[in-house]
Amino acid sequence: MKPTHIEHIGIAVESIETARKFYEQVLGLECYAMEEVPDQKVKTAFFRLGDTKIELLESTDPEGPIAKFIARKGPGLHHIALAVENAGEALAEAASSGTELIDKVARKGAENLNIGFLHPRSAGGVLIEFCSK
Ligand code: ZN
Fold it and tell me: What is the pLDDT of residues 32-52, one digit of tens each?
């Protein structure tokens, strides 16, 4: 499954409208896409840095995973997404080595990528996402 690079870093924010100013005005990055992902109850905004992106995540539902994350830990680093050849196969491979999964099978994420999450309990407290085209 060997990941090729960090596809993106997901950051939980209370408001994309407010948070994006730091990325645009301080870091000089350009938001090239905004997308709502109803399945995950989030709005997303993407900034590109070479092969990697920063994904800002704003909850669209107080019961959504990002709203719950912010209630527990406050805004900030939420997950790291690794690019793999095939997200579904990478999940199965991780499961076969005893890794706890959040997603047993890949699903559609932002930017129409196939995605799936590993449980942070199995990854040193880090929420890891696999991504493939
Ligand atoms: Zn992500």
Answer: 999 999 988 999 999 999 999
